[in-house]
Amino acid sequence: MRATLIYGAGDVRVEEVPDPVLREPTDALVRVLRSCICGSDLWPYGSRPATAEGDRIGHEFLGVVEDTGAEVSRFKRGDVVVAPFVYSDGTCDFCAQGLQTSCRHGGFWGAGGVDGGQGEAVRVPQADGTLVKLPVGEDSALLPSLLTLSDVFGTGHHAATTAGVGPRTTVTVIGDGAVGLCAVLAAKRLGAEQIVLMGRHKVRTDIGRDFGATDVVAERGEEGVAKVMELTGGDGTHAVLECVGLRDAIDTAYGVVRAGGRISRVGVPQYPEVPAGAPSFLRNVTLTGGVAPARAYIEELLPDVLDGKVQPGRVFDTTIGLDGVPEGYQAMADRRALKVLIAV
Amino acid sequence: MRATLIYGAGDVRVEEVPDPVLREPTDALVRVLRSCICGSDLWPYGSRPATAEGDRIGHEFLGVVEDTGAEVSRFKRGDVVVAPFVYSDGTCDFCAQGLQTSCRHGGFWGAGGVDGGQGEAVRVPQADGTLVKLPVGEDSALLPSLLTLSDVFGTGHHAATTAGVGPRTTVTVIGDGAVGLCAVLAAKRLGAEQIVLMGRHKVRTDIGRDFGATDVVAERGEEGVAKVMELTGGDGTHAVLECVGLRDAIDTAYGVVRAGGRISRVGVPQYPEVPAGAPSFLRNVTLTGGVAPARAYIEELLPDVLDGKVQPGRVFDTTIGLDGVPEGYQAMADRRALKVLIAV
Description:
The structure is a homodimer of 344-residue chains.
Chain A: E1 2-8, E2 11-16, E3 28-36, H1 42-47, E4 55-56, E5 61-68, E6 80-83, E7 86-87, H2 93-96, E8 107-108, E9 121-124, H3 127-130, E10 132-133, H4 143-147, H5 152-162, E11 170-174, H6 178-189, E12 194-198, H7 202-211, E13 215-217, H8 221-231, E14 237-242, H9 247-256, E15 257-265, E16 273-275, H10 278-282, E17 286-289, H11 294-306, E18 318-320, H12 325-333, E19 340-343
Parallel strand pairs in A: 11-12, 11-14, 12-13, 14-15, 15-17, 18-19
Antiparallel strand pairs in A: 1-2, 1-4, 3-5, 3-9, 3-19, 5-6, 6-10, 7-8
Helix pairs in contact in A: 5-6, 5-11, 6-7, 8-9
C-alpha cells in the first residue's frame, strides 16, 4: 500500500510500504477513507533532522474495517469507524477515568511498528478500545466533520472542558489555527457567554465568528492583552484556551486570565517553562490542559456532528489525494492552507 | 499600643505605635488575644533590605471587638472574632465566588495604613466582610486551633481542595512545616485514601502521622521521587500539595504526580517559573493553588475545630508574649520552633 513518511524537515514522501496485517488478536485492519494533516505535524516538518530511513506519519483517520483479530468483539468488516490520535485499550484505570492518552497499553500512531494515519490502511491495535463506529456510509458528506473527532475538535473540546467552560463563562481563545477555531466551537457548544478570539488571519477569524466568537482581537502581545482587558471590563476572562504553543502565547494567556481563572493549553506546546511567580500565584490562576484524550469525547461530540449542530469540518479548506500530501504539508507550513483533508 | 515592626533582615522589633482608631464606618477595632508568626514572615525576615522606618508585620490574629463603625452590622463590642489574612468586603463578585483574596476592596494587613496582626490591637477594614465570630470565650483552650483558621489551616485546606482531594484520592504533601502539616490534616479531613508526607524532621512528621499521613518519605530530590513512586505502584499520587515554595519542591511535585493529577502550591512560592514541557503536558498535569482565600473556608472548617475533630493548633510548639516576638522569629528561622503562638 502507499503511505506517508517523513525523512526530515521539509521532506515528506508518499511511498509503497508493506500492507498491514493482523498481528495481535486485538488488532483490526482499517482501510482509510479520510485522513488529514495536523498542525502538530508541522513541528517535525519544520525541524526534523534528515535521516536515511523515514518515519511513518499522520494520526487522524477514519475508514472502513477490513478485518479483525479473534478478540475484537465490537467491530466487524464493513463498519465505518473513526480512530482518535492515540490508541488505547479502553479497560485500564486511566481509560476508565477518561485519560486514554495515558492508557497502560496505548500508544501513538506511526511509532513502534504501528502505521501512521496518512496512508491507505492502518493496523489498529486495541481496536475495541480505540475505534468508534460511525453510523454513516463511506460517501457521507459528514466525513470531514467526523474526522475532526480524531483530534482537532476533541482537542478544542479538551481545552474548553479542562478550563471549566460552561454557561456564564467568559473565554479567550489564543490562536486562529484549526485547534483554536475548534476551541471556539467547543466553548460555544458548552454555552460560553463571551468568546474572544485572538487571531489576525481574517479568513480564519471569520470562521471563528461563525463558530461562536463574540469578539476578535487581531493585536498581539501587550496590545492584545490591553484589548482583551478592554473587552472584559478590565478583569480578563475566566478561561483562556492557549492554542498556539509558543511562549508569547502562554505569556499572553497569563495576561488575559481573570483572577481565579484557568488557562488550558493544548496542541504541542514548545515552551519548557511557564510563568509561576507572584502575578499568577496571588491571582490563583490554574494551568491545565495537556494532550487531549480525544477518545474520551467522541461519544459526547458525535451526536452534534451527526445532526449538523456543529460543523467542525469547516476547518478543512483544502482537499487533496494521497499523492498531494507533500504539497499539502507545504501549503500548511506556508499558511496557504488552514487544514488539509486527505481523501485517500 | 505595642506592635511588631520589621526593619530589615533579622531585625524585628516590638515598639510603641499609635493606638488604632476607627477611620471608616465599615471599620472595627479588635483587641488581639492571639497572633502568631507565619512561615511567610520568614521571607522578609531573611532578606528584607534594612530601612530607617520599619513596616508593621503579622497577618494572623483573633481577638475581641472593642468598637465598630456605624456601618458595621454583624459585630458588636465583646465579640470574639478571627480575621483571615486578607481583609475583604464580602460583597463583591470575587468574594461571592469565594476568592476573597481578589476582593475589589480588600487588602493585606500591615500595608497601606492598615495594622499588622502582631500587635495589641488592629483596625479591621471591611469588618462585616472580613471577621468571623467565634462562639468561645477569651480564655478558650481552643484559641490556638481557632487561630489557624486565619491562615495556616485554611491554606492547607486550599491546597487540598484546589487539588481535588476527596475520598479515593492519593495525596503527596511536600514539606513538613506548619502549612504542610495542615495540608495533611485537610487532606485527611476530606477523606484522602493515602497521604504521603515528604519531610525529614521527625518531630514534625510525627505530628503529620497524627494528622493522617499514611507514609512519610524523608528522602528528597530523585531519591524522594523514587520512594513515592514505590509507595504508589509506580504511578504517583492524584494530588500533590507543594507546601515548601522552593524550586526543588515544585520539581519534586512534577516527579510524583500521577498522570491526570493536580499539583497545588500554597504558601509563598519563590520560583518565577515552573516546568511545562512534554512530561507534564503529555501526562495532563494541572498546576493550581495560589494564595488561599482563608475567609472562604472558615465557616466550613470551624465546626470541626470547635468539636475537636481536628486540632490544627498542634502546629504551635512554642508560645511567647509580645515581648518575645523577635526571639520567636529567630527560633522559627533556626527551625528550633515549628510555629510560634503569640499570647498578646
